[in-house]
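Researcher: Before we compare anything, I want clean individual predictions. No alignment, no superposition, just each chain on its own. First chain goes here; please echo the sequence and then give the structure tokens.
Model: Echoing the first chain and its structure:
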Amino acid sequence: MSGRLLAPEPAGPLVRRERPTLSVVIPYYRRADVIAEAVRSALHQTLPPYEVVICDDGSPDDLDGALGPMRDRVTVVRRRNGGAAAALNTAASVATGEFVVQLDSDDVFLPRRLEAISDAVVVRPDLDVVATDALIEEDGEVLWRFRDAVPFAVDDQRRAVLRHCFFAWPAMRRSRLLAVGGFDERYRATSDWAGFIRLVLDGALVGMVDEPLYRWRLGAGSISADGAYNAEEEIRLLRQVGDDYALDPVERRTIDEAVDGMRRRATLLRAKEAVADGGDARRRSLAVAFGPGFSPRTRAKAAVAVAAPGLARRTLAGRFAAGTAQRRFGIGLEAS
């Protein structure tokens, strides 16, 4: 394994095991323009997948035609439209590999990804979830590595997963994923994180190969593009987790702190959106200028937007439109 494996210390001695079977699962809806590249990246791995399962989530376009000659090399299951979480759960239930490996239909694997995941499971058979680092791209430009946006948590993974989604697009032991109920179909943008919370709170151990072997390609049509909506849904998710699980006082405080940060992020993003599109900029900016938790610099910028929204709009133009990944993670938002 070329990338360093980050993982909690094992509870006891470990014995190397045989390679696991890895099923790649892809949720599909209206991605005929990019699905072939995603599937090709899964099939052309240095360690081929056990199978590739695509769930067509009631898409009206021609998936079979978009796959072309690769159609005979994948399993396609179809269902009525229910969202990405429902499609992933359907694909996972149909798959037969020991692990299912998540791939979004507009993203791609780098060639060594499955081999790196398999190597990690061989040396750490106690891990139920194995991710790799990823490249975050927008319009073909690499913006960050995923771990630079969200550091991987080696220790205290229960608290870490309540603060943020510290891994993504992993391989998951299929039996364990199904046992916790899979991905949460109540959420649109945060169903992945909700599923990972279920796994970690159920005791699953997570490891990450510290090598960027996944390309997350952001775009205007991506669910991840609306950072303010995501932050608001994240708040609903964490509040629901607090209701559903027996958490200790420290974990509940972690949720409260995370929710406070998300609320500030949503407020700031809604204000920036209002300035950029000529919406209710003054009211939104006042919420930042006089709201709790914002830096003096951010308050000053919000005050400018209150007094002169046109000037603020010209300053923000272009920079805001290019910042999808920044909006998704809240990185440097107060400095922008």
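Researcher: Okay. Second chain, same rules.
Model: Second chain and its structure:
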Amino acid sequence: MRLRVTKSKNTDIFYVIKTVYIKGKEKTIIVEKLGNTSTIKSRTNGENPYIWAKKYVEELNKQEKENKRNITLEKSPSTIISLNKQKLFNIGYIFLEKLYYDLKLNKTCKKISERYRIKYDLNKILQDLIYTRIIEPCSKLSSFEVAKKFVEQPNYKLHDIYRALEVISNETDFIESEVYKNSLNVINRNSRILYYDCTNYFFEIEQAEGLKQYGKSKEHRQSPIVQMGLFMDGNGIPLAFNITSGNTNEQTTLKPLEEQIMRDFEMSKFVVCTNAGLASVSNRKFNNIQSRSFIVTQSLKKIKKHLQEWALSKDGWHTLGSKKEIN
């Protein structure tokens, strides 16, 4: 910030100004109007207005450097608000924006855009879809309207969103792997333990089509469903997911997604934790080789009597790496 003095015929007017960059262009803005010479003299007990004003600006710069500067907004109750001009903006997405760029999703979108030679702003579309999903979950059409309330307005059309959805869907695996790689610079990821489970979602339609097929609904509904399998790391942070048709045996969904994780995430040593429903013989064999292990739940009521007695016995237990028995 710096001082600007505008001279008139009868007095001088003092301003605090600052140079900022808006959309890559340099612009000078007025931070504060200090008043004319007589106004400043009344505040400074006779001190030279120029000397006082320079000291004031130096103090503002010091406070700004220490993040302690107070910001004053002047509003006039007599100002007429223009009809149909937007005055209210949602800034709740700004803290999400920092995380978005920490994960370098903007660079991921740039790579995808270059690959597909996309002319619309894929990065801005993905941002707004993520922000609106968190702030105000709704349809794509409604998300577009919600995004118009953001300080940074959409620079794309509604049809661009629908065009981008297919691209995002095709590049899901690439986006997941890039997010995981970049997240290592943001937070510690516990990839030694992976949790896997499946759920499904029903559709209020009369005929099955595509992935929407009749299957065993978690909500016991007689409607077509799709299945979603999700891997989370040891800290409960999502790692990768897949979508399969509603009539697919969920036990068969684990191995393909796990192979993708080993390929895209460059991971080979981990323990997979699942419930008994996903612990088929094939899945156990697959996770019992190449430094992989598994943990599954098992109902004590359903196992044989000698195994029940062994599991419930207080004798013979010890911690890993120790021969000392514990109760």
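Researcher: What stands out in the second chain?
Model: Strands lie at 2-7, 12-22, 25-36, 193-202, 225-233, 238-245, 271-274, 293-296, 317-318, 325-326. Additionally, The first strand starts at residue 2 and ends at 7.
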